[in-house]
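INFO  loader      accepted 1 record
INFO  loader      residues=252
INFO  predictor   begin
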Amino acid sequence: MLGIFNEKLVNAPKELHSPASFNSCTKPKLTHEILQDFISCDSSNAFSMSFGNDALLAHSPSNTPSFIHHRLFSGLDNIYCVFLGSLHNLSKLNKQYGLSKGTNEALFIIVAFRTLRDRGPYPADQVLKELEGSFGFVIYDNKDGTVFVASGSDGQIGLYWGIAADGSVVISENLDIIKASCAKSFAPFPPGCMFHSEHGLMSFEHPTKKMKAMPRIDSEGVMCGANFNVDSQSRSPMMPRVGSEANWATWG
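INFO  predictor   done
INFO  writer      dumping tokens
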């Protein structure tokens, strides 16, 4: 999977930016170069969708042959989702949302997102805690210009994010693509966390705690983005549990 989002659309953590990126032997790349690299990994099956200059999503069902989990792409009502992994309780979730038994994980995530965006009183951390299994996904809501990313708490689906040459945020499970695209400005996306394009990063496992950025130092002794961990000493205001604004589509 690959998601690239314009810096005007996504308010990425400033700690992802490394001043060493433009001084390293590997320079960060522009969007079209990153997409070309991704497509070349599986030129017969990979495809992409662009949304003007704001966003780009690309998907390959076989980008990594050894990947044992589902690789899914779905779109519905101008909402698009790239999903990696599998949900053990998908049948139960589909029944809960009134979906057919054949609904896959990516389509379920879209429907849940749309339902909660439009009328659901549930906060994002509660919804994500109900997902049993290994997962990582990126949602792009083209109607509202919203990006939503989440990674399961078991850490089995590794996602990475970084900053491209033009300041865009790049998200992928392919570490080689991220390294080649973002030079020194990248980091693992923290497990058990979610990111909203307007409101930032938070832990859905520990929603009352703030996230703390810890500088990453690579083998050359150079700062390379940052790891984000839950700050056990901090406390954030809880998201309200009622009302149309208390959902994972508009949370903040």
